[in-house]
Amino acid sequence: MRPIQKSNKLADVCYDIRGPVLEKARQMEEDGHKIIKLNIGNLAAFGFDAPDEIVQDMIRNMSNASGYTDSKGLFAPRKAVMHYTQQKNIAGVTIDDIYLGNGASELIVMSMNALLNSGDEVLVPAPDYPLWTAAVSLSGGKPVHYVCDEGAGWLPDIDDIKKKINSNTRAIVVINPNNPTGALYPVELLKEIVEVARQHQLIVFADEIYDKVLYDGATHTSLASLADDVLFITMNGLSKNYRSCGYRAGWMVVSGEKRHAKDYIEGLNMLASMRLCANVPGQFAIQTALGGYQSIDELVGPNGRLTRQRDLAHRMLTEIPGVTCVKPKAALYMFPKLDARMYPIADDQQFAYELLAEERVLIVQGTGFNCTDTGHFRVVFLPNTDDLTESIGRIARFLDGYRRR
Ligand code: PLP
């Protein structure tokens, strides 16, 4: 029989967070090994449960959730999202500008599919949350990576962004707060990004899914609050702020310069219709979460569990010889750097495999986030302090052996 091959569309599509190293970890678990997982931002798996009120309301609403809804979603949760945009000072958003999705992930892919033609370029941060790069490629576009500068706390390099704009550039993606670096961008920098978008008529895709996971009393500014003459597509959802990844509840807001985007919006509507609607229990969860009092503040406050785990992981990692790490100001991740003279890593996926095989600790290698050098990896600081202490101790032991090879 003729071999059945995947489509050419997938040739440049890559999503290593759930790639071959995870597959290896799965096999090891099946063989009875216990692995400490520092690889994925899945809060519930580490005992950060969804707020009770959201769970209870979902259960109560289940009997009303068996039918399709409007393609963009039910009115009440979209209204709740509209109020959220008002709290974030995003002007002029109507119910019609709001799309509910099966997580932000579905909407990210949809937003790129509706936009891109072959040859169109989209500026994507490096390192990035790799779904963005994958979604641009899958949609037939070309991801062009702009540098986020580690030396400047992983902030986007505006000069690099400007250098990479040409007549094919359609849009810029900004992930703030950032996965994988934990950076939170200052307002001045956000204004500079908006100015570049304005000058070059770029659409701004703002991924703000961690906008409440902020440490040290920091505040978050939505990019879309900074202008009304640029088109913004803002992504958000319940997965992180409300510890509800499994409910697959996300939203997308179109704002700013909408008048010139009628055709694109038609495309978005078409794709939203084709998938009929987002899962309805998840839609109800949005309504409860955004209308209620539950928050993540306790976990990210001065003595909150996430803050304590961040501090511990950062201190332990940076105590390892040859390891430096920008301390995260937000989100659930840090992105340490290994000194290339002490740890000459040619293939960081192999590095991740070896760490897994020798020490039973699962990380994601830096190149999985489109980071060009092979001396980084991402650590998720969701495990409790005992598991973090144990796993980073094992990383230190592994690196000690690596150095002596
Ligand atoms: N955007 C970023 C930056 C993320 O880190 C993630 C998930 O980890 C997503 C989007 C996807 O979120 P969702 O669960 O809403 O699909």
Automatic annotation (TrEMBL):
<dbReference type="Pfam" id="PF00155">
    <property type="entry name" value="Aminotran_1_2"/>
</dbReference>
<keyword id="KW-0032">Aminotransferase</keyword>
<dbReference type="InterPro" id="IPR015424">
    <property type="entry name" value="PyrdxlP-dep_Trfase"/>
</dbReference>
<dbReference type="InterPro" id="IPR015422">
    <property type="entry name" value="PyrdxlP-dep_Trfase_small"/>
</dbReference>
<keyword id="KW-0808">Transferase</keyword>
<dbReference type="InterPro" id="IPR015421">
    <property type="entry name" value="PyrdxlP-dep_Trfase_major"/>
</dbReference>
<feature type="domain" description="Aminotransferase class I/classII large">
    <location>
        <begin position="34"/>
        <end position="390"/>
    </location>
</feature>
<dbReference type="GO" id="GO:0004021">
    <property type="term" value="F:L-alanine:2-oxoglutarate aminotransferase activity"/>
</dbReference>
<dbReference type="InterPro" id="IPR051926">
    <property type="entry name" value="Ala_Aminotransferase"/>
</dbReference>
<dbReference type="GO" id="GO:0030170">
    <property type="term" value="F:pyridoxal phosphate binding"/>
</dbReference>
<keyword id="KW-0663">Pyridoxal phosphate</keyword>
<comment type="similarity">
    <text>Belongs to the class-I pyridoxal-phosphate-dependent aminotransferase family.</text>
</comment>
<protein>
    <recommendedName>
        <fullName>alanine transaminase</fullName>
        <ecNumber>2.6.1.2</ecNumber>
    </recommendedName>
</protein>
<dbReference type="InterPro" id="IPR004839">
    <property type="entry name" value="Aminotransferase_I/II_large"/>
</dbReference>
